[in-house]
């Protein structure tokens, strides 16, 4: 029997959201247990929008995970203890088009009640329902130096997800 996760109220999370995203990183995962992809990300946030507890994350259209995000109603953000940094490095530097990330990392997929995928090794998971998306546009940069983050002009798509469950 695998690890047991408990649902908690997202209001009880004590993690620093800046450290959580920027320093700890996360896996963005979309699809079903039969067909999914996951990628490492360090851009995102937590907050309240339209009176809902939300996450927001960013995926470039060139990433393999993008097609799964587009097809899926739900996605997960999965956070790990430091001992799993190697997994995050692999999932952030290798494409699911080229390798089987699950075999390469030893991640153990778990399917949620909604059919989303997260991983047994996780310390915390946000399961989210997509409620909004938008594409980053060069013309909207008010700080011209931000454009330097996009030498290939491969602008991200922003996804906003309502947190439907938080698991620890």
What does this molecule look like?
The chain has 168 residues and is α+β, with helices and mostly antiparallel strands. The protein has one domain: Electron Transport, Fmn-binding Protein, Chain A (Pnp Oxidase, Chain A). Helices cover 18% and strands 39% of the residues. The protein has 4 helices and 10 strands. It has helices at 17-24, 64-71, 85-93, 101-105, and strands at 7-8, 26-32, 35-41, 44-49, 52-59, 74-79, 109-111, 117-119, 124-135, 157-167. The strands form 2 sheets. Strands 1, 2, 3, 4, 5, 6, 9 and 10 form an 8-stranded antiparallel beta sheet that branches. A hairpin with a 2-residue loop joins strand 2 (26-32) and strand 3. The longest helix has 9 residues, at 85-93. The radius of gyration is 15 Å and the shape is globular. 33% of the residues are buried. The mean pLDDT is 96.
Which key phrases capture this entry?
168 residues, alpha+beta, Pnp Oxidase, Chain A, eight-stranded antiparallel β-sheet, 10 strands, 39% strand
Outline of the structure:
With 168 residues, the chain is of the alpha+beta class. The protein contains four helices and ten strands.
How is the topology of this model organized?
Blueprint: E1 7-8, H1 17-24, E2 26-32, E3 35-41, E4 44-49, E5 52-59, H2 64-71, E6 74-79, H3 85-93, H4 101-105, E7 109-111, E8 117-119, E9 124-135, E10 157-167
């Amino acid at each position: 029997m695998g690890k047991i996760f408990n649902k908690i109220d997202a209001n009880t999370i004590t993690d620093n959201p800046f450290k959580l995203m920027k320093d700890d990183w996360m896996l963005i995962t979309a699809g079903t247990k039969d067909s999914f992809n996951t990628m490492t990300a360090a851009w995102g946030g937590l907050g309240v929008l339209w009176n809902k507890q939300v996450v927001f994350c960013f995926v470039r259209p060139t990433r393999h995970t993008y097609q799964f995000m587009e097809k899926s109603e739900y996605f997960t953000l999965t956070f790990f203890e430091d001992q799993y940094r190697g997994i995050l490095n692999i999932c952030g530097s290798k494409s699911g088009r080229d390798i089987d990330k699950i075999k390469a990392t030893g991640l153990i997929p778990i399917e949620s009640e909604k059919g989303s995928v997260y991983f047994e090794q996780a310390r915390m998971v946000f399961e989210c329902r997509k409620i909004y998306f938008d594409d980053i546009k060069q013309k909207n940069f008010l700080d011209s130096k931000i454009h330097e983050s996009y030498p290939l002009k491969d602008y991200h798509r922003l996804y906003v997800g309502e947190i439907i469950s938080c698991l620890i």
